[in-house]
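Pipeline run #58 for the internal structure catalog. This entry was flagged by the ingest filter as a single-chain record with no existing model, so it goes straight to prediction. Upstream metadata was stripped on purpose; only the residue string is passed forward. Reviewer on rotation: M.T. Logging verbosity set to normal.
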Amino acid sequence: MNNFLLKRASAAAVTSAVLLAGLGAASGSTAIAAPTTATAACSMSVGSITAGGDIANTGVTASSPIKSSRAVGPHLFAPGLAKIASTWTTTVGVAGEDTTYGQVVVNGTLYYGEYGHDSTGKPTSSLKSLGVGYQGYKAIESSFYWGKTVRGSDYRLRGDGVLYRYGPNRQVTRYAGYSAVKTMALISETLTYDTFLALTNGGALYTIHIPTSTAAPTVKKVRASTWQKFDFLVAEKCGTQSTLLTAIDKDSGAAYLYAVGHANGAATVIQGLGKVPGTFKDPVYYLTTAEGTPSLFGE
């Protein structure tokens, strides 16, 4: 298991212990909570890397009207060199330190990166090269499932349409035939499969269901057209089995929010929620999430 997955597995164990402790406390309580008639609106953090090489995050809430709030973080990269990024995940340590970590392609080199603060509040950051030769890649991502066990995979979509999956012990599986994919977002990470929502150059949406076994991926068409203006899809879990999706057109600087039901091919329900306030013209977008967040289950 690589360092990226080890960090997430360790945090998952801590989160499970906290949840179990909470359940134990609740079982001994006689207080009865009042029923609620409404649930909080789903939200997500859309991470980005600016043209100047700074980290930024835009919080998006699916309220009515939609709310957004952008904050710019540390400067990590030389201007204009960051190309694509995986999900970045934030963890908070027992001494108050915080770290946000993920992977990014910078000028053809794949890096594992971190930024945050130590226990005294001093800013920290680092970049570690994971390999070269990533010019022209369209997407990178890391899945992580945690339940009674933990499992993770790294994915790399090469410019010619070959999708690589790196499993346990760096076992590599190659899937050809994805040259039409423009970008994609992870929407499911389970014990037995991962699923991406992929956008093609022609504007169609597909799910790519990738078993953890040796079976071939299953591709299903979700929508035939009309999504071609978007350059990035950023997805976060909403409820127990749905997805909150931000679709970004960086040329116009516009982003739109969608509620996507549990994916089922052309029968998938997609509800447009409206335009997200703000300007979205950064060259790189990705999901920022927190350690301990339940695994994605959008398909």
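catalog note: The first strand starts at residue 43 and ends at 49.
catalog note: DSSP finds one helix and 21 strands in the chain.
status: ready for reviewer M.T.
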